[in-house]
């Protein structure tokens, strides 16, 4: 009898391995690593310049970093409720579909494919390329063509890993997360020592500053605090620039919602999603504020604004023995953020195709690798195209309008769904005041940004609206000519054969 049961168990296991579906392989540690690894990317090494540029002073920029952290934690808590209330993967798309209906959900899918994901991946990969290339050309400027070529190689590597194996992408994310946290610690510790002691560090005296660093009998000062004195100078602050400061800060915190894209692959999601979100976001906020304090301890605001690679400038000042290591660590940090994005976002396209809002071939997975291969590959050419054409700060403002508008819509939808369906199961429930505060602030920032940067945000708004006629022509009323449909179906079939992909055979939600 026991042998029969054992044989049945082995047969069931074998069948389960052969069945085509996405598997639950993400535990608590990979989930925390996934969020931290996606959030901590290029942002903390690029955005300080954008935050300072638009806030106008050291004190206000630090306040922006704290407020952006709190706002991101509020948003992450809202998404913890959404992720445990709706068990499907797909993140923003799924929540808009369940709460506000198919048109907002399709528009979110449309802008993600058209420009949000290409823009986000482009500026992260550009940062990767810059930190890899610039040390070889310092103190001269690195050739932009070479930076973009290395950026494309980085994107190609990440796409290949995510096409090959879910577990490999997950393990890579855990490893890269530990590396990037080590990079932040390397910045924080000497910055805090400099702030506390104000002594000579590694025999180097900063121009225009008191000496910084470890104890030295020949150079002693009271502490590295000049940049924090009279830090709240509001003369340079203008209301129209403030939303752009928040956009840069929120860009650095962006990624807290990516775990919700892979809900169907998280082990025990009702426990692990809220726990992973809370642990990771509190950790990230503390680290980000300390890193910015370290930056301002060593560099004046003017020097920070002149630097295109803030972490490298910092390392050259206070970590001369390790200055060549920092760019490598930052580049790996960017690679981790890229990996997290390419792991999560294709799941949104995958779910959208499964719901009939995207071509069916993108709801298929590889028959042996069990990865959403078509959805991953779809994003690759768009990222490369935008990477070749884009400039880093324009890309941030360009992508942020639609991204934050739809996040605000998703949390608004959550509040409406609470009111309409009070008995719907909600294993985790965020306090109402947090949800309302987050939604109102997001709508306020989005509205004000139309005035602050009308060109980039206006283009983003127009491109979002182009999805409306596409929705009514291809989904709401399927009015494509018969010949077009025949060509489309033939291409889809050939693509399915070429990529060796098939529909899921098991429901995972």
TrEMBL record:
GO terms for molecular function: L-amino acid transmembrane transporter activity. It is a multi-pass membrane protein. Keywords: Amino-acid transport, Cell membrane, Cell projection, Disulfide bond, Membrane, Phosphoprotein, Transmembrane, Transmembrane helix, Transport. GO terms for biological process: L-cystine transport; L-glutamate transmembrane transport; regulation of programmed cell death. Coiled coil: none annotated. Its main location: membrane. Pfam families: AA_permease_2 (PF13520). InterPro entries: AA/rel_permease1, AminoAcid_Transporter. It is found in: Cell projection, Microvillus membrane. Disulfide-linked heterodimer with the amino acid transport protein SLC3A2/4F2hc; this interaction mediates cell membrane localization. Belongs to the amino acid-polyamine-organocation (APC) superfamily. L-type amino acid transporter (LAT) (TC 2.A.3.8) family. This is Cystine/glutamate transporter. It comes from Parambassis ranga (Indian glassy fish). The lineage of its organism: Eukaryota, Metazoa, Chordata, Craniata, Vertebrata.
